[in-house]
Specification:
single chain, mainly beta, duf1285 like fold, duf1285 protein fold, six-stranded mixed sheet, 4 helices, elongated
Length: 209
């Protein structure tokens, strides 16, 4: 119920504002406002943290307003040393990122085989299509060998320093369901096609179809 006693439409209700939302509400104009080109002022370390699940924290408090997250995500940069920065034309400051800054939460596909096209939606509603410019890669934990898949959103200063989205578990299972075996060199791999490129999800054991 709302303050008038009328039932509230849960589907359109916004999440409650956190302390971070309130603290950052006045920063939006500073981020959006175009400034004359110049060298941004260094602000040192900023109290932002992007957690592995894609949650943005400001001074330890989650930013619940999606429009704020999208706004700050639009000025996210990664340097050659692997550090993460929020950078506007006027200011820049270093932030902490636990893993990839974004999460791919939904998969859509058309076609099949080599004509298949895979598109991913991220937690900030950015849609990217896997292909030569947006490759999928699999990282394996050194101790458990558990696979963690990623898709490149934006290229970085070096090949291994792009801005990626981690593909969440549910979406990864959908990806595996679309996988087919292919020979890559002298190894038989299980993977997926998108935009004419094959992305390996793992090597097949000898003799396994």
């Amino acid at each position: 119920m709302n303050d008038t006693g009328a039932p509230m439409d849960v589907a359109t209700a916004k999440p409650p504002e956190s302390a971070a939302d309130q603290a950052l509400a006045g920063c939006t104009d500073r981020v959006r406002r175009p400034r004359p080109a110049r060298v941004p002022t260094e602000c040192g370390d900023l109290p932002f943290l992007i957690k592995r699940d894609g949650t943005w924290l400001y001074r330890g408090s989650p930013i619940n307003r999606k429009e704020l997250v999208c706004l700050f995500a639009s000025v996210l940069r990664r340097e050659e040393d692997g550090s993460w920065w929020l950078q506007t034309p006027a200011e820049r400051g270093r932030i902490e990122v636990e893993d990839a800054p974004f999460v791919a939460v939904e998969l859509d596909w058309t076609g099949d085989g080599r004509s298949q096209v895979l598109s991913f939606r991220t937690n900030i509603d950015e849609v990217v299509t896997a292909g030569p410019d947006h490759p999928i890669r699999i990282s394996h934990d050194l101790f458990t060998c558990e696979p963690t898949p990623y898709i490149l959103l934006r290229p970085g200063a070096a090949e291994h320093l792009g801005i990626e989205a981690r593909i969440n578990r549910a979406t990864y299972y959908e990806l595996v369901a679309l996988a087919v075996p292919e020979w890559v060199g002298n190894k038989r791999q299980l993977g997926v096609w998108s935009c004419g490129r094959f992305f390996s999800l793992g090597e097949l054991p000898p003799g396994e179809a």
